[in-house]
Design goal:
Length: 207
């Protein structure tokens, strides 16, 4: 009797739905398949190629920027050098004009027997000026007795002379070089052959 009651009770319990509601089954998350070592190496090699290409591109850009900067630096240095050189050339050229005028005044003062104190003063100024020009690299262009050189001389005229043809026989205005470059060309007179004298017999025949 007791066994039947226990059996009915167990059946009753099994038939009764759970008070917690229907039982939910847990979802099973499928794990991603692991890459083989060969696939992993191939993937790393592809990534390495991409990074290498990116690095090479950045390196090229850096090299272009460096080249542009070097060109810019050289251009600026050249412009500064040109400005400094041209500025010096203009100043030195003006000083040469002052020197010419002082030399002319000194020569006239010597000829007119001016006060020797004044002569000494002008002479000292000329020496100081010449020393300054020499210090800056200014030197005189070869003058009388040298061969005419169109790079250094400007021919004012040709004059008959016993000197060899093309020889500078007189300086109208001296020229100067600045570190080997013409600062001011010389204005000179150049020798040419004297015309040959015609024999007296030919002159009489012409008459």
């Amino acid at each position: 009797m007791d066994e039947e009651e226990d059996s009915n009770a167990s059946e009753t319990v099994e038939e009764q739905p759970s008070s917690a509601g229907p039982v939910k089954r847990a979802k099973v998350v499928e794990a991603e398949p692991e890459l083989s070592s060969g696939d992993r190496i191939s993937e790393l090699e592809d990534a390495l190629i991409i990074e290498k290409s990116r690095s090479e591109d950045l390196l090229r850009r850096l090299q272009y920027l460096q080249a542009d900067f070097e060109n810019y630096r050289r251009r600026v240095e050249k412009e500064i050098g040109d400005a400094r050189r041209f500025g010096n050339e203009r100043l030195l050229s003006d000083l040469l004009t002052v020197k010419d005028e002082l030399e002319l005044a000194y020569a006239k003062a010597q000829g007119s027997k001016q006060n020797p104190v004044i002569l000494d003063g002008v002479g000292m100024i000329l020496k100081r000026l010449q020393s300054l020009l020499s210090k800056e690299g200014v030197e005189r262009v070869p003058g009388v007795g040298s061969k005419f050189n169109p790079d250094y001389h400007e021919a004012a005229l040709r004059t008959p002379s016993d000197e060899e043809e093309g020889t500078v026989v007189e300086e109208v205005r001296p020229g100067y070089l600045l570190k080997g470059k013409v600062l001011r060309a010389s204005i000179v007179k150049v020798a040419e052959k004297r015309p040959l004298e015609e024999p007296e017999g030919i002159e009489e025949a012409k008459e």
